[in-house]
Amino acid sequence: MIESLLIANRGEIARRIIRTAKRLGIRTIAVHSDVDADMPFVLEADEAVCVGPANPAESYRNAEAILAAAKSTGAQAIHPGYGFLSENAQFARTVEANGLVWVGPAADAIAAMGDKINARNLMAAAGVPVAPGSQDPADSAEAALEAAEAIGFPVMVKAAAGGGGMGMAVAADATQLATEFEKVRSFAERMFGDGAVLIERYFPRVRHVEVQILGLADGRVIALSERECSVQRRNQKLVEEAPSPAVSPELRERLLAAAVKAGEAVNYRNAGTVECLLDPATGEFFFLEMNTRLQVEHPITELIHGIDLVEAQLRIASGLPLENEQTGQTGHAIELRINAEDPKRFFPGPGRITTWVEPGGDGVRVDSGYVAGNTVSQNYDSLMAKLIVFGADRDDAIAKVRAAVAGFQIAGPKNNLPFFAELLENPEFLSGDYDTGIVGRMR
User: Fold this and answer.
1) What contacts 365, CB < 8 A, 6 or more positions away?
2) Of 201, 233, 258, which marks where a domain is finished?
3) Distance of CA 348 to the CA centre of its chain
4) pLDDT value at position 295?
5) For 287, how many CA atoms within 13 A lie in the half-sphere containing its CB?
6) Residue 165: pLDDT above 80?
7) How large is the average pLDDT for residues 246-250?
8) What's residue 442's pLDDT?
9) Is 279 found in the same domain as 376?
């Protein structure tokens, strides 16, 4: 097993990784920006190194500073968490070239899945269902129109190098496509340094379902189960649950088999997620993308399978087998992303936390990045904590998460707890028959 681990991240995911590493007897090293010096993840690590100022480009995305911190502290391995450098293939290569263990998939797999067009083509060749779309990037508005007419309007216009719900727009006709194509291409060049654009069929009513995979040290790929991620704002997830209320045993079998094929197609190692769009009217699903890292919503899979996915990552990176890969599925789990944002329009609302009281009780878990007295900075993502509950079934989990939302006290920054209180009384959500448009219909 790895003996010392540098966590190239911050906030709740850094604390989450530190917790498992300490349980396994691994020495932990945190890196942090100057404004994060007093954050809980810094104080909980065995050692901490400041790698730059608040701007992420100069600290958490500063590969040179992070590698220097690893060398100066004698770290044996680097865990990137999610976001920042976690899906940067060049960083993964550099880590390994410097003799360190990269806790994640091989750089080639990251690169292959990082481009949506290349990923689509790879998946199609492997027999994984993909939505109708362009096989090559649309390099002009004319090429985008040609692709859209072949697919049929409405279409989704996507940044090929995008992720996290960014760089996406819907076009209902040729006029709208011309406008959105230029917007997406400009955004992609600015944000990702790559203006390649993908045109894909748009499904007006669709569910977002994903499968957790693990590429094991012996070369096999296994799939655990699916997660439902359809409660979204601006194409970014707010609520996840497992198992999905839309997935039958027969559909689950097909989803998991496709996810294994996807992992095998790129010789996948470590933890990853195969994201799919599910048409609830037909039961058809289509590959959306593969996230070559640990997902924000991984705790709900942990709870229904009784597995620690961070431990699994560390064991795989160490060349070790899992202690138990035959984990059965029981109960129901729900995760709410507690963000520092306005609960109506979801605009960021950073600030100093004056009150922070986490709920407790049977089946309640809080993975938080903050405590009272900390400041939620505008420099970083608005996620403050993840409220996760486990119940005997979906009704039990909903009852527990309702009580937990009512018991979670936050003052200072804006927060979206009032939105969750509303959602948990919403008939559409309670029925389980909802889709990615549910938040828009509530607003």
Assistant:
1) 299, 303, 387, 388, 389, 390
2) 201
3) 19
4) 97
5) 30
6) no
7) 96
8) 95
9) yes
Q: Which residues contact 197 (CB under 8 A, 6 or more apart)?
A: 137, 138, 139, 144, 157, 158, 159, 160, 181, 184, 185, 188
- C-alpha torsion 118→123→126→131, nearest 10: -120
> Does the structure show a pLDDT above 80 at 163?
no
User: Would you say residue 164 has pLDDT above 80?
Assistant: no
Q: Average pLDDT, stretch 324-331? A: 85
Query: For residues 431 and 422, is the Cβ–Cβ distance under 8 A?
Result: no
CATH (domain of 320): 3.30.470.20
Residue type, 123: M
> For residues 297 and 239, is the Cβ–Cβ distance under 8 A?
no
Is 207 a catalytic site residue?
no
Report pLDDT digits (tens) over 28-71. Answer: 999 999 999 999 999 999 999 999 999 999 999 999 999 999 99
Q: What pLDDT, on the 0 to 100 scale, is given for residue 332?
A: 98
Q: What is the pTM of this model?
A: 0.94
Q: Facing residues of 210 across strands? A: 227, 275
- Same domain for 196 and 211, yes or no, is no
* Distance (Å, whole) CA 32 – CA 9: 8
Look up tokens 């707890």; give the residue.
417
Please count the structural domains in the chain: 3
Q: Which residue has the tokens 């009784």?
A: 306
Print the domain residue range for 139: 132-201
Q: Please provide residue 140's backbone torsions phi and psi, each rounded to the nearest 5 degrees.
A: -155, 165
Let me know: does 39 contact 1? Beta carbons within 8 Å.
no
For residue 115, the Cα-to-chain-centroid distance in whole angstroms is 16
pLDDT at 353 over 80: yes
Task: State the catalytic residue, choosing from 16, 269, 293, 315.
Answer: 293
